[in-house]
Design a protein that fits this description.
This protein is mostly helical. It has one domain (about 5-395). It has helices at about 5-20, 35-55, 60-65, 70-90, 90-95, 100-125, 135-140, 140-170, 175-180, 185-200, 200-210, 210-220, 230-255, 285-290, 305-330, 340-360, 370-395. It starts with a helix and ends in a 6-residue tail after the last helix.
């Protein structure tokens, strides 16, 4: 199969753009509770779009799924659900470490574990559907270049986190207390570790679903689209976790009626204690959705723009889905170094979510040091994507070692 790693990098950039932008349509949602617009958007993210695109763009998508063993389907679904659990604790990471440091730490763990654990795990369990073990990857010049690219990416994430920490330290005392009133480095690191590792399960789910993609290819699906059927199973797992939590919040907060009502029964207010379900891959995280969401705005009018809310939630959910639509396309172009796809995805998320941060003036008032650090972090991440793409290209050259 012919691959083009630089085209793969481009697709991963498009996926990062979708992930870093999905929350923007939520700016148009008014007077809906978070759990309401998140679940409406989620139906498009995790159910509607995966089915529609897979059925429209692949050959015999259902056949590619149903011919798999229950083991393959279970692990693909299971890791998708575990990714959802990672989101349950992501809000706590932001609470204890603050947005910038928390995002950097969680993304760092997510990138490292999601990238390196599948080939490491294959070293001990040969049946894992990964082309090469970490030892085999490191034994070739092309693999060594790719691993350097992964290391550079993690360095870039660290620099971006340092920039965020610098920005938070420069905030006025009152604003800092509001942003990280419960700051606890020890608690934050523990929670960020759990959240990052569990969020990395999405990468494991995609790996576990590789036989579905292979079956789709055998059915005659074009190479670029072979990853779409496995997203049906992976995202069903993620939907399960999010659906259960949103319904619990609907019952606890009495917001279930909002799905069908054009008027509010009470003036909504923001609940500070609420844990927002987002994963480390849903950049720019809790702060972004909180800034974007208009669910808790009270203007004295009880009328709810129901049609507009459904439209903007659907648009946000569809945009979210496209991060992995492009991810699977990029993965098909990375050849035996597809394990690096997760690193590229994490890097592109930070790049584009930071872009939106600049557009929304989140860095306004920060010092020159903070601006230089975030610029250096972004440049380092861009460099990492070039190195990984070059390493993957080397692997495809005749006589490569």
């Amino acid at each position: 199969m012919h691959t083009n790693p630089f085209l793969g990098v481009f697709f991963h950039w498009l996926g990062g753009l979708a992930s870093g932008s999905f929350y923007v349509p939520y700016k148009g949602v008014k007077k809906w509770a978070w759990e309401v617009y998140w679940l409406v958007g989620g139906f498009f993210s995790w159910i509607i779009c995966p089915w529609l695109l897979a059925l429209a763009m692949t050959q015999n998508a259902l056949g590619a799924i149903w011919q798999q063993s229950w083991g393959t389907l279970w692990w693909t679904y299971f890791f998708g659900a575990m990714w959802g659990f990672g989101g349950l604790t992501f809000g706590l990471t932001m609470r204890y470490l603050g947005m910038s440091l928390g995002m950097g730490v969680a993304l760092g763990y997510c990138a490292a574990f999601g990238t390196l654990l599948p080939p490491i795990f294959k070293s001990f369990v040969p049946s894992v559907p990964v082309p090469e073990t970490i030892g085999q990857i490191a034994s070739s010049a092309a693999g060594q270049v790719t691993l350097v690219g992964v290391a550079v990416c993690l360095l870039g994430i660290g620099i971006a986190a340092l920039a965020g920490l610098t920005k938070e330290r420069e905030m006025p005392a009152e604003e800092k207390k509001k942003a990280i009133a419960e700051f606890s480095f020890s608690k934050g690191i523990l929670v960020a570790t759990f959240s990052g590792i569990m969020s990395a399960c999405f990468s494991f789910a995609l790996t576990a679903g590789a036989p579905i993609a292979e079956a789709s290819a055998k059915a005659g699906t074009s190479t670029l689209w072979t990853g779409l059927p496995k997203l049906i199973v992976v995202l069903l797992g993620g939907f399960t976790t999010n659906f259960v939590w949103c319904v619990i919040l609907n019952v606890r907060n009495g917001t279930g009626y909002q799905y069908f009502s054009s008027t509010l029964r009470q003036t909504p207010r923001k609940r500070q204690e609420e844990t927002i379900i987002e994963t480390a891959g849903d950049a720019p995280g809790e702060e972004g959705v909180e800034r974007a969401a208009a669910a808790w705005r009270a203007d004295g009018i009880d009328r709810v723009p129901l049609a507009a809310n459904y439209f903007f939630s659907a648009l946000a959910g569809t945009t979210w889905y496209f991060q992995f639509f492009f991810y699977t396309m990029g993965e098909t172009q990375m050849g035996k170094f597809a394990f690096a796809s997760w690193t590229l995805h994490m890097a592109s998320i930070i790049i584009f979510s930071t872009m939106w941060g600049w557009i929304f003036h989140e860095w306004r008032g920060s010092s020159k040091k903070a601006h230089l650090l975030i610029a250096l972090g972004i440049l380092t991440l861009l460099l990492s994507t070039v190195i990984i793409g070059f390493g993957t290209w080397l692997k495809g050259q005749p006589g490569s070692y």
